[in-house]
Amino acid sequence: MDRYVLPEGRNPYGTALTRQEGTQAQVTCDNQPSHSFDIRTLIPDDQNKLPHPLADPVTYGKAIYAALFPPQTAASHALANAPERILFVTTDDDLDAIPWEYAYGPYGTDDTDDFLVLACHIVRGLPVGQRIDPPKLESGLHIIAVPSNPLSRHIAPLNIDGEWQRLKDDIQQVPYALTLERTRPPTMEQTRRLLANQRQRVIHFMGHGGQDEKQGAFLCFEKENGTLDAVTAREFIRRVRGTVFLVTLNACVSATPGETRFGNFAAALARQKIPYALGMRFSIVDEDARDFSRAFYSELARGISVEEALFQARQTLADSPQNWVIGVPVLYTSLAAPAPGFTCPAGTPTVAEHQARMEVSNLSRALGTFQGRINELIELGGHLTGDQCPGLLTIHGSGGQGKTALAREAVERFAWAWPGGAYATSLENLPTWEVLITDLARFLNLAPQQITDPAELERQVLSQLAQQRTLIVLDNAETLVEAVQATKPPTAWHNYCKSD
After folding, report:
1. Phi, psi at residue 201, to the nearest 5°?
2. Per-residue pLDDT for 264 more than 90?
3. How far apart are CA 178 and CA 349, in angstroms?
4. What CATH code is carried by the domain that includes residue 414?
5. What are the tens digits of pLDDT across the range 328-352?
6. Are residues 396 and 495 in the same domain?
7. What's the predicted TM-score (pTM) here?
8. Pick from 6, 31, 33, 211: most CB atoms within 10 A?
9. For residue 65, which of 44, 41, 81 has the smallest C-alpha distance?
10. What is the pLDDT of residues 404-413, one digit of tens each?
């Protein structure tokens, strides 16, 4: 038999579900038998006519409530005491798969029906003997963001830079001294580098998640060349253990049970003693995701506990036109009691982009999310991030095929590999060699206005470029080739092209 612990709160008590033979679940409260129910009544199908929670969360939530808290039972009497916290403990995937967060009905002595997640903290946890003491948070809020958008035909492209920008904007509006770092490149290895020898970090993963029949749940990280790296829960835990306090998984199936013990990514983190793991049961629209992140991290930055921060973020989601979004966040904990919040002094947030300097505004960006050209981007990524990068790469193609947008996407993805930064210019209206050198000098912080000798300025530019790998993008390069072939006598451009 498996045991499941449910509500505990202001007047601590426990309610347990014991899986009996077949599909029956026996409920006990404060170690006293309460009632039983058939878990099939909570699985939407044609027979019971129960709607999916995304279609009708209220009707579905009433079925959850009726199964957990029928009248005149120990469970309903305990709920009548208005607990501040309900803890679900499940060791069975069938019961863990049920979205208890949608429970809808009266709370305490209030006769008004509503989602219970809007009335008290609802958290999923471990059996009593497996829980750990809450840690003392010794530092301020420090978030490691992992915006991942791998190059793969098997997953949909994301507006990952838009998600990062929204998170950054939200954090910068908070009047407290917290830190936000971007993992660049978004690899598991780089994530580990940012976590090494650190404690109590918050990881915020933005991207796709998935399920594999053999390996269980995984997160879609990137490899250095931008291709997909499916990191399983087991691999992720081995890389982050001992360094994080909270993992927020903004991936659509990060809290959905799969075939293996590690099938539920968020639950697996809690079982491995990560204090808190917040997963998303379903995908949510961008506006709801933005509102949730803003509310959640704003609360954390103000010293509010994780559980209360989630509670307040749900209040924000309650205003969404998509009322099903209320039950999407699923919080797991390995703690024996709720942990206090971070201590963040008043001040200004610090945002670390970990990106080399880029001056690429001359390269037009694709409208909306960049899509397609996966093979070309993978090839460019291999060249731009490898140890043996060629001195010259050329993107061939006829006019109007999107070469400039492709170059812009490649630069933004892989500029991290170029410590000297990335500089782009257009040669459509061919500048003189001297103008190009002057612009490069400004990019390299060489103060060209103080160097009157063009030859000396060129020497310093070339010397600087030799000291640090710098990515230079020349758009409309065919204009240069045509000009060099047609111009006599030779110009400085001839010497450059010849030497190259």
Report:
1. -80, 160
2. no
3. 5
4. 3.40.50
5. 999 999 999 999 999 888 899 999 9
6. yes
7. 0.87
8. 6
9. 41
10. 888 888 889 9
Is 309 found in the same domain as 180? yes
DSSP code for 227: B
Q: What is the largest CA-CA distance in the chain?
A: 100
Q: What angle do CA 114, 14, 42 make, to 5 degrees?
A: 50
pLDDT at 281: 85
Residue 1 has pLDDT above 50, yes or no: no
Distance CA 37, CA 467 (A): 71
Domain that holds residue 470: 358-499
**Burial (CB count within 10 angstroms: exposed 0-12, middle 13-18, buried 19+), residue 362:** middle
Instruction: Locate 371 and state its tokens.
Output: 């899509």
Q: Give the tokens for residue 37.
A: 């129910």
Strand-pairing partners, residue 206, are: 147, 250
Q: Is residue 205 part of a domain?
A: yes
H or E, element range at 60: helix 57-68
Q: How far is CA 59 from CA 32, 102, 424, in A?
A: 29, 9, 56
- Residue 137: inside a domain: no
Given a contact cutoff of 8 angstroms between Cβ atoms, the answer to whether 210 and 256 are in contact is no
Q: How far apart, in whole angstroms, are the C-alpha atoms of residue 76 and residue 79?
A: 5
187-241 confidence digits (pLDDT tens): 999 999 999 999 999 999 998 887 777 878 899 999 999 999 999 989 999 999 9
209 contacts: CB under 8 Å, gap ≥ 6: 217, 218, 219, 220, 249, 251, 252, 253, 254, 265
